Amino acid sequence: MNPVAADAMERMPPLRELEDELPWLSLDIKLFYVNAVKFTISLATSLTSYFLYDSGPIWPLLVVSTISAVYTLRDLWRWMFTRYRVTPERVERRTGLLIREERHVRRDRIRSVSSSAKLRHRIVKLRVVHIGSGEGKHFKAAFKLDALSKDMAAQLRRELIPRDADAPEERETVIARLRWIWFWYNIFHFWAILAGVLFLISQYFLLQTFAVDLIDVIAGLIHWANLGVWRTVGAAIGITFVLGYFSLALEFAAKHWNFELVRTTSGEDGTELRTRQGLFTTKTVHREDRRIRGVHLHEPLLWRWMKLTETKVITTGLNASLNESAHILPRAPYRDALHAATHVFPDEYRPLEAPLLRHPAGAFRRRLLWAAYGPAATAGLLLWFGLTDVVPMSWWPVPLFLLPLTWALAWVAYRTLGHALVGPYLVTRHGAAGRSTTVLRTGAVIGWRLRQTIFQRMGNRMTVGIPTAAGDRYYRAIDVSTEQAVAFVAGADPVLANEFLSGTGTPPAESHFAPRSEAP
209-260 pLDDT, tens per residue? Predict the structure, then answer.
């Protein structure tokens, strides 16, 4: 080493000392002012309505005022005892007084930096910054900073996910925007009646503060209409459904208003996928292209008949099942989801449009047997109860009438099975009640697990497990033939396939797991 450079390194203070000299920053206090004004208005409104309509109960007013006061004091407490800082190696946050909590995330482990803003944040130009480093079900090594100024939030995101200083200004290409027809697709739900009931309950307590009894009002309308018992019940159910659809539509509009899915580009290469949405609470999620490993389409049975699907990206640090940020579209028609999913990978391949290989007929026979287990077992149980005079003997054949339905589902499950290898992408599909289609980069595969049950071994079939460090961490190609499994693995990982073929000529009967490093 150059003696001059060595001497300079010796004189430099340790990195930890440099970090200790960095100041701790506080949150923005303007959010406390907004909540204080909100509490004052709430209290004044409640007292005014109580003294003008003193026949109503006072406890709903006390509940509303108490909740508003708690939120106001919570924001003041958080501002007083929350500090954060960004060092060259990590992001740190300290909170609490009686119970102190310190959390930090290494900067090289940060997977996402997104921002959101409720209406009270937007009034004073504040943002909530969410820093994620690979959330899991039982452990979340991430935290949020509530609240920072809009400029500080943007500066923090640029600092934690830096771009090349010499890169040109980013350009945006819009992939999808909110379509009004999506409202109908997302409010069509059987549980709309529950939403309607909750809406009526909330309106009941709200009107109670103004000495208006919603039950008396509805009873008066029913008496005036003179509909009769059954017509009244039918009208009540219909009105509840309408109110439920109305409340679900309001919820969807508030969450997805001005929704946009865009790709930001810098130079020739894509940099990230970005979604923006929200009416009262705005949310922006950034997903770097270099962390995207695939895309996942999920179609429950009812949605499939309506040609609907939900679309997620498979990204390192975001569990597709547990993290809402993995969604890049709300529930949408399949053609819109296919268009968005196709643009996740900006190359010439179209893996979702490729024909899938059909799995062997043995997979169908296996599903027929599965479909017969439930009705046959139930019929046998009822037959035993009938022989012991617990239930009438004529009941035992009733479950067998379900066999046509279960066998139809078995046929659907078999027709759903498929897999393909399209350039650098693996495609798998399975599921009867909910069809799942997964596209994964071959470079994201960190191992293979080939498994055969005794029945699969008899039918010359196996299940190919695909571990990865992204999304749900594990995907499968179910009930493929042995030849298809070897060809599938050979196309994605020729080295591992050669290990199989150089041995017994076929993959091992039980399982094999061969780890390898993930491509950057």
Answer: 555 666 666 666 665 556 666 777 777 777 777 777 788 888 888 888 889 9
**437: nearest Cα among 477, 405, 495, 466:** 477
Q: 420 near 355, Cβ under 8 Å? A: yes
Helix axes 192-208, 214-225, angle to 10 degrees: 110
- The reply to whether 2 falls in a domain is no
Considering Cα of 135, then 136, then 140, then 144, what sign does the dihedral take?
positive
Q: Do 146 and 62 fall into the same domain?
A: yes
CA–CA gap between residue 94 and residue 83 (Å, rounded): 5
Q: Which of the 8 DSSP states describes residue 392?
A: -
Q: CA 195 to CA 159: how far, in whole Å?
A: 42
Q: What is the pTM of this model?
A: 0.72
Residues with Cβ < 8 Å from 434, sequence gap 6 or more?
Answer: 298, 299, 300, 301
| 147, amino acid identity | A
Cα–Cα distance between 134 and 112 in angstroms, integer? 8
Domain span holding position 320: 174-178+258-346
CATH code for the domain in which residue 117 is found: 2.30.29.30
Instruction: Specify which residues 158 forms β-bridges with.
Output: none
